[in-house]
Amino acid sequence: MIKKDTRFLIVGLGLIGGSYAMGLKRNGFHVDAIDINQLSIDYAKEHDIIDEGSTFAIELIQNADFIISGLYPNMTVEWYATYQKYMKPHAFLTDVSGVKRNIVERIQSILREDLEFCASHPMAGKEVSGVKYADDAIFHIANFIITPTAKNTQTAIATLKEFASILGFTNISILTPEEHDEMVGFVSQLTHVIAVSLMNTNDNTHLVEYTGDSFRDLTRIAKINENLWSELFFLNKDNLIREIDDFVKEINHLKTKLEQDDVEGLKELFIQSTIRRKRFDR
User: Fold this and answer.
1) Residues facing 144 on adjacent strands
2) Where are the membrane-spanning stretches (predicted)?
3) Residue 64: helix, strand or coil by DSSP?
4) How confident is the model over 1-36, as pLDDT tens digits?
5) Which of 44, 131, 176, 209 is the most exposed place for a label (fewest CB within 10 A)?
6) How many whole angstroms separate alpha carbon 70 and alpha carbon 31?
7) What ranges do the domains of the chain cover?
8) φ, ψ dihedrals at 10, nearest 5°
9) Dist CA 60 CA 53 (whole Å)
């Protein structure tokens, strides 16, 4: 469980890692960080986002009670495999990865017996990256997902629930890694596929001069980190391909209503989508 003297270590000071650090510091916790970019460390210290930081410091790992990997999924596996030898006994480990299958199993299979890794995913973000955009307010309207396996204890799950509550997440859910990846294939990855595809459908450079809010809103997430999202897509490609196929079928269904001049049928699709979308209004 989390105590007031729990020392947190953030590995990777990106948007999420930086926002985690900001929220934890705001709640009075000691937060250290490791990042390959010294400028990110310097910025975080200057703006009181972290207490201490380094591009590499064994001492920070040795002192940490709670370690959060803000790295890409495959890098998270490699980092925990490499640096677990420096971790204190019974340190608690988690991540922010957007995919869980294989990643979670790989980490849990290589860890020392006295360490526990329980995966989690903050469903939050912005279309910008880096610690300079850190803002823990993004968690206050977001969902937090815990993805335990049979290897995890109830204490670990309770610890992550407490962690999410401290940061102010709106809702906390528990899914298996498989359920998580199936869900995220639809609500996150498919939406990015749609946004990217829209921006790549028409190369008219003058669109910005006369487009409306609907296009801007729908394509906001098309400003995308190509390295991270390529990795996420391929790690979950079976679920994502299935979601793309289902979406194409639905697009063709709507297209058929137009081809057949089926006014009532088209209106029914609009009514159904409106009803479903209202469930998300806060």
Assistant:
1) 122, 172
2) none
3) coil
4) 899 999 999 999 999 999 999 999 999 999 999 999
5) 209
6) 14
7) 7-175, 180-278
8) -100, 125
9) 8
Query: What does CATH list as the number for 180-278?
Result: 1.10.3660.10
Is 14:68 a contact under the CB 8 Å cutoff? Answer: no
> In 3-state terms, what secondary structure has residue 143?
strand
The pLDDT value given to residue 282: 63
Tell me if 54 sits within 8 A of 41, measured CB to CB.
yes
Q: Check if the beta carbon of residue 99 is closer than 8 Å to that of residue 139.
A: no
- The dihedral region occupied by 8, where left means phi > 0, alpha psi between -120 and 50, and beta the remainder, is beta
Q: 3-state SS of 76-111?
A: HHHHHHHHHHHCCCCCEEEECCCCCCCHHHHHHHHC
Q: Scanning the structure block, which residue is given the tokens 């979308």?
A: 277
Question: What CATH code is assigned to 7-175?
Answer: 3.40.50.720
Q: Concatenated DSSP letters for 234-253?
A: HHTHHHHHHHHHHHHHHHHH
Distance of CA 56 to the CA centre of its chain: 24
Compute the distance between CA of residue 277 and CA of residue 272 in angstroms, rounded to an integer: 9
Distance (Å, rounded) from C-alpha 234 to C-alpha 241? 10
DSSP states of 170-229 as a string? SEEEE--HHHHHHHHIIIIIIHHHHHHHHHHH---TTGGGT--HHHHHHHGGGS--HHHH
The helix (H) or strand (E) run that includes residue 63 is helix 58-63
Q: What is the pLDDT of residues 118-149, one digit of tens each?
A: 999 999 988 788 899 999 999 999 999 999 99
